[in-house]
Known about the structure:
5-stranded antiparallel sheet; about 0% helix; 5-stranded mixed sheet; mainly beta
Amino acid sequence: MSKKTIQVGYDAIYYFVDGKTEIGYGEKSGKGALIYSGRIYPLDNAKVIAKGRTVPSEFSPALASWSRVKDASGSYLCVNFNFDGIGRSGSFQNFKGGYLLDIGNDEHHLYYIEGDLRAIRRAVPRH
Length: 127
């Protein structure tokens, strides 16, 4: 994982290759974005789902959990984080934020959710 410049001036400050797919996090002018398969998905464009913030949160990519999951509804890149330490103990341990990138179709949708994981139900809209 080293820094490199990708699409239109984004610096990939955290990335890895899974198979042939480059996955990671980039920044341009202080604004964050997910990187998936050579494409940029600005965090500001994420659709907020369920209860929580109205503006998606920045996060430390090296402290986040990154995974690709597949279920009957599709394939997703999931990035979840605990706000850089908040929630590591006590009653806040289940409070997390996360991005969900729909990678199962040609039109990828980026979603953001945060809150107590015990209270979050299936909130991702079906397309």
